[in-house]
Specification:
Layout lengths: L1 H26 L1 E3 L9 E4 L3 E8 L3 E8 L5 E6 L7 E8 L10 E8 L4 E5 L1 H12 L3 E6 L9 E5 L4 H12 L7 H4 L1 E5 L9 H4 L2 H10 L3 E9 L6 H21 L7 E5 L12 H7 L1 E8 L11
Parallel strand pairs: 1-10, 12-13
Antiparallel strand pairs: 2-3, 3-4, 4-5, 5-8, 6-7, 6-9, 9-10, 11-14, 12-14
């Protein structure tokens, strides 16, 4: 009797599978591979954690978090498949759960380009929770060339639990900032001052942290500037003292001196008007610019 019951349940499951495949094929073009081939792959570093799932013929689904930024979910398409606009999202339970039915989630916006869907931290957490419980995600949207047959993109949960656990472990080692956030830093000086206020010195800490962690950072440009008050020769000397003071700070904290280019410009390159107190405050500055190997260099340009 037990064997008979198992056979009946298996037959029922196969029938359900057949009905679902037939119904799906009739109503939509489906992107999604065999369950046996589904996998999630982790690409981990101190700069970014990336958990990806390949979707045959379509592209990939990615959970990613870059240093200094929030987690996001991205649905990438290798070619243009989805029309721009609002896509529906639903959660489907495994077909062997007899009482389970599909559940709708909030819609997502499809954008033009390779990153068709990009969600915020909160929505990505919801998607991750559903996948971790073994439920698959289905994104439905009309194709860009027609509205007759919708497109369905399936994100499979197979192997996701181990993948997301490894992803969370990777998050613990991320740097607090990324390159874009520290590529250029501006330090402000009080009128006539040669020393940085403590709150401006604190801006240097993330710069130092990143520059020492990323081996691709091979040049650091330090540029001193003043406002337009006073004699030009005195302003030039003041900008030199400010720039050299910042360079000395960087060297003392581990940046090789050979990697640093120190320049001073006096009042030559204002970023604001010198006719107002606010503008002059913006002009009294030292800028630090990081450059990584492979970037173009224009050493004559004052940042």
């Amino acid at each position: 009797m037990r064997a008979l019951g198992q056979s009946l349940r298996r037959a029922k499951w196969l029938v359900l599978c057949s009905l679902m495949v037939a119904a799906t094929g009739a109503r939509a073009e489906v992107f999604g591979g065999p369950v046996a081939d589904a996998r999630w792959e982790l690409d981990a570093s101190i700069f970014e954690c990336r958990l990806s799932h390949s979707i045959p013929r379509f592209g990939e689904a990615v959970f990613a978090r870059r240093a200094g930024e929030s987690q996001r979910f991205v649905l990438r398409q290798n070619n243009r498949f989805l029309a721009t606009g609002e896509a529906r999202v639903r959660v489907e339970h495994p077909v062997w759960r007899e009482t389970a039915s599909a559940e709708p989630l909030g819609p997502v916006e499809v954008q033009l380009g390779a990153q068709a869907v990009t969600t915020d931290w909160r929505y990505s957490q919801r998607l991750a929770a559903e996948l971790r419980e073994g439920r698959r995600l289905v994104f439905t949207r009309e194709p860009w060339h027609s509205r007759e047959t919708p497109v369905e993109v399936i994100v499979a949960p197979v192997g996701f639990r181990a993948g997301i656990d490894a992803f969370h472990a990777c998050l613990q080692d991320l740097l607090p900032v990324n390159f874009d956030q520290v590529e250029r830093t501006s330090l402000s000086f009080p009128k006539g001052a040669r020393e940085l206020p403590e709150e401006e010195v604190e801006k240097l800490e993330p710069v130092l942290l990143y520059a020492q962690a990323d081996r691709r950072v091979d040049r650091v440009y330090v540029d001193g500037h003043t406002d337009g008050v006073g004699l030009r020769a005195e302003n030039l000397e003041l900008s030199r003292e400010r720039a050299e003071m910042v360079t000395e700070y960087l060297v003392d904290r581990g940046i090789p001196e050979r990697q640093i280019t120190t320049r001073w410009h006096g009042e030559r390159y204002p970023v604001a008007t010198n006719q107002t107190a606010e503008g002059r405050e913006e002009n009294r500055r030292v800028t630090i610019r990081l450059e990584r190997s492979g970037q173009s260099t224009t050493t004559a340009r004052a940042p």
